[in-house]
């Protein structure tokens, strides 16, 4: 139902973010996450892409994820945004890249502490991948 409503005229990514905020305030986590995911879908489909908004929604989805497994698709989306880019033309800001790097690294450390070494390696490798897109992170 949210997807159909999001397709209605005048329903913008900004309005979906407001809906998500309201849902979280009312302790309706599932609705909030669904609104953020629909917001992300709409932003990814839009032209031109608004990368700062995309990054903000991805960060919020990652923060709201209930597990590392639930967060991983959002990190993959961030990496797809960077496909074909270099540190000279990365569409995400250095701050966003630094945040993604730190979050990936921290999730890897958590996995390592749990003895999940393959998962830890995946997260830590991903962290290093984010560092390739900003001279400040080399």
Summarize the helices and strands and which ones pair or pack.
Blueprint lengths: L1 H5 L6 H13 L3 H17 L5 H14 L3 H15 L11 H20 L3 H15 L7
Brief rundown of the structure:
This protein has 138 residues and is mostly helical. The longest helix is centred in the last third of the chain and has 20 residues, at 94-113. The protein has helices at 2-6, 13-25, 29-45, 51-64, 68-82, 94-113, 117-131.
Share of β-strand residues: under 5%
> What Rg, in angstroms, do the CA atoms define?
16 Å
Low-confidence stretches: none
Roughly how many Å apart are the termini? Answer: 44 Å
Give the count of helical stretches.
7
Could you characterize what this model shows?
With 138 residues, this protein is mainly alpha-helical. Helix content is 72%, strand content 0%. Helix 2 (13-25) runs antiparallel to helix 3 and helix 3 (29-45) runs antiparallel to helix 4 (51-64). The longest helix has 20 residues, at 94-113. It is flat. The termini are far apart. The model has no long low-confidence stretch (mean pLDDT 90).
Observed structural traits:
138 residues, mainly alpha, 7 helices, 72% helix
